[in-house]
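Exercise 4. Each item below gives a protein and its sequence. For each, produce the structure-token representation.

Item: NBEL2 protein (Alca torda).
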Amino acid sequence: LQKWVLREISNFEYLMQLNTIAGRTYNDLSQYPVFPWILRDYVSETLDLTNPTVFRDLSKPIGVANERHARDVKEKYESFEDPTGTVDKFHYGTHYSNAAGVMHYLIRTEPFTTLHIQLQSGRFDCSDRQFHSVPAAWQARMENPVDVKELIPEFFYFPEFLENQNGFDLGCLQLSNEKVGDVVLPRWARSREDFIYQHRKALESEYVSAHLHEWIDLIFGYKQRGPAAVEALNVFYYCTYEGAVDLDAIADETQRKALEGIISNFGQTPCQL
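Answer:
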């Protein structure tokens, strides 16, 4: 932390270290490193990193990055009641980081392509649900309070995942009938490399350096659970939290298997730091 505060390490490096300390690793899709969406401008011709309005509000969970969703998310939490008393109230029934989400972003790159196909019972998921465009992915966060996927580190260093190098047949979009191939980039990016370069520059910008700790509090810190999480509209399904379920205490094999499945596929909140 001291190194980061003194700016001896980059924002990227600091996030990677936090992920590692919190038990996230490239070797486990259900606990893959999690990175924030940092921009909200994917339509301008040029990206002006001196303008604070091009950035997402890092103090809010991605599920309420669009102010309009806050009321519904709050209502859902307040009106939820589990008659059995096992399931605690939650704001989101999905998670910001899970195995399917990692495969979703990396669908054009092996071994994730094959893993995605296995997950979808032997074929590619329907084209409209695939990751086909960066601007459209952000739009989905704005319009759909259920889609709360954050990003993965590859968005800041790996241009190849945006290219359909292997020529996979990913089908066509229903509305426009356009073929899904390479990922569609924001207007301000001249190429995949340029997108990664500008996106990384945005991550290291003055604005993000000043606000990154707000997002870190939500994902790794004190706003991850308890009253602070409730207030921040940042509570997820109970199974996603470390120590929420004692699997060894469940004698029924089937029930235990089902819970293990939920935990590994549903998403896991990082260990609280």
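Check: Residues 1-266 form a domain with the Neurobeachin; Chain: A, domain 1 fold (CATH 1.10.1540.10).
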